[in-house]
């Protein structure tokens, strides 16, 4: 099983209280010959998106970041560092060239100091 071609990064930009969504989906390709299928999950590595400005104590809770994908049927689900969110599942092997999966993200910008806040998301593909 392989998970390849994962979008390396994305940016959400706005002012406090704006609800912003990714301009282009985060995509990846899952390839497996497991006839039972696969599941793909995502979760943040830390509880907060951290500021870039040295000394800033503002953070953005990772749970404010929401993901939508085929497994959510058009709804957005908050991320949680303790619980992976299923973003796709398939009860059969992928196509021989792999299956392309796409996720959108959104966030309601909180009232924090203007900055670039960063976090890391882990995508994990497992066979069923």
Report on the structure:
This is WxL domain-containing protein. With 128 residues, this protein is mainly β. The chain has a single domain (2-127), classed as Sandwich (Immunoglobulin-like), CATH 2.60.40. The chain contains no helices and twelve strands. It has strands at residues 2-4, 19-21, 26-31, 38-44, 48-51, 60-61, 66-68, 77-78, 85-90, 99-108, 117-118, 121-127. Strands 1, 2, 3, 7, 8 and 10 form a six-stranded antiparallel beta sheet that branches.
Structural features:
single chain; 128 residues; mainly beta; Immunoglobulin-like; 6-stranded antiparallel beta sheet; elongated; WxL domain-containing protein
Quick structural gist:
This protein has strands at 2-4, 19-21, 26-31, 38-44, 48-51, 60-61, 66-68, 77-78, 85-90, 99-108, 117-118, 121-127. With 128 residues, it is mainly β.
